[in-house]
Design brief:
Layout (H helix, E strand, L loop, with lengths): L2 H6 L3 E4 L2 E5 L5 H6 L2 E6 L12 E4 L14 H13 L3 E6 L5 H13 L4 H11 L7 H15 L6 E2 L7 E2 L9
Parallel strand pairs: 2-5, 3-4, 3-5
Antiparallel strand pairs: 1-2, 6-7
Helix pairs in contact: 3-4, 4-5, 4-6
GO cellular component, one term: cytoplasm
Keywords: Hydrolase, Protein phosphatase
Family: Belongs to the protein-tyrosine phosphatase family. Non-receptor class dual specificity subfamily.
């Protein structure tokens, strides 16, 4: 099994109370292994409830038209409330690559006062397969500008079919 496949099928610990994953990892045994009792589900799939798992659904597609910004505060509050109660949370989407990675990055930006660049590089080091879609990048950059007055990531355009986040020049490769 390649490292990418292993990453797709694994739960990544971002903080002792916060995990990032794809839907395939959301099993009772893995949740128990990581002591996860709370989940942010941004798959847009109709999934069955899992006993003992408190879950919120974030209805966002992994598309260039999707608006993820309106969900930032809801996710941050849910994860922080669980943390205050001593619970662990997993944020997951279909593959743990775009939607859930974006929400995890923003969570770190807000709760740990990280820059977008720092938060992305940290999550990317732990889970090298992350790759938020370009629309989510635009929204995270705008969010950082609103919060801090500046952006630490820019979109580079040139000969590529679409812009590339500047931070990709410094990322870990899966």
């Amino acid at each position: 099994m390649s490292d990418n496949n292993k990453a797709l099928l694994s739960i990544t610990e971002v903080r002792p109370h916060l995990f990032l994953a794809g839907y395939g990892c959301i099993t009772p045994s893995l949740l128990k292994q990581y002591n996860i009792t709370h989940a942010v589900d941004c798959t847009n799939l109709k999934t069955k409830a899992i006993s003992g798992l408190e879950r919120i659904e974030i209805p966002v597609d992994d598309s260039l038209l999707a608006k993820i910004t309106p969900h930032f505060e809801t996710v941050i509050k849910f994860v922080e409330d669980a943390k205050q109660q001593g619970h662990n949370t997993v944020i997951y989407c279909a593959a743990g690559v775009s939607r859930s990675a974006s929400l995890t990055i923003v969570y770190l930006m807000v709760t740990e006062n990280m820059s977008l660049e720092e938060a992305y590089l940290h999550v990317n080091k732990l889970r090298p397969i992350i790759s938020p879609n370009i629309s989510f990048w635009r929204q995270m950059i705008d969010f950082e500008k609103e919060r801090t007055g500046k952006a630490t990531v820019e979109l580079i355009s040139g000969r590529m079919a679409r812009p590339v986040p500047s931070v990709y020049l410094r990322r870990a490769v899966a």
